[in-house]
Specification:
It is a single chain. By secondary structure, the protein is mainly β. Helices cover about 0% and strands about 55% of the residues. It is built from no helices and 8 strands. The strands form 2 sheets. A 5-stranded mixed sheet has the order 3-1-8-5-6, with no helix packed on it. It has a 3-stranded antiparallel sheet with strand order 2-4-7, with no helix packed on it. β5 (about 35-40) and β6 form a beta hairpin. The chain is globular.
């Protein structure tokens, strides 16, 4: 079972735990608005580009169960990073 952690600019992250045995939908909100960013999960080497993120909008990230098969860590970190950083 992996624990989800809030990284840079993440205020809300649900669910808190992921089993890795089935598909999961992650919901998140950012702390402050930003433009031209990547929403990423470093442990899965996954990056998704967004033109803008705002606290009023819920972000949804769908993960298939097969992405967890090669995961070595016991935690997942969701973070928002600026493009070019």
């Amino acid at each position: 079972m992996e624990t989800n952690h809030k990284g840079r600019n993440i205020r809300l992250l649900v669910p808190h735990y992921v089993s890795g045995t089935r598909n999961v939908r992650i919901y998140a909100r950012v702390q402050f608005p930003e433009k031209r960013v990547f929403v990423q999960v470093p442990e899965l080497k996954m990056k998704i580009y967004h033109n803008a993120v705002r606290p009023a909008e819920m972000m949804v990230l769908d993960l298939k169960k097969d992405v967890f098969s090669n995961l070595q860590a016991d935690k997942l970190t969701l973070e928002v990073v600026l493009v070019g950083k």
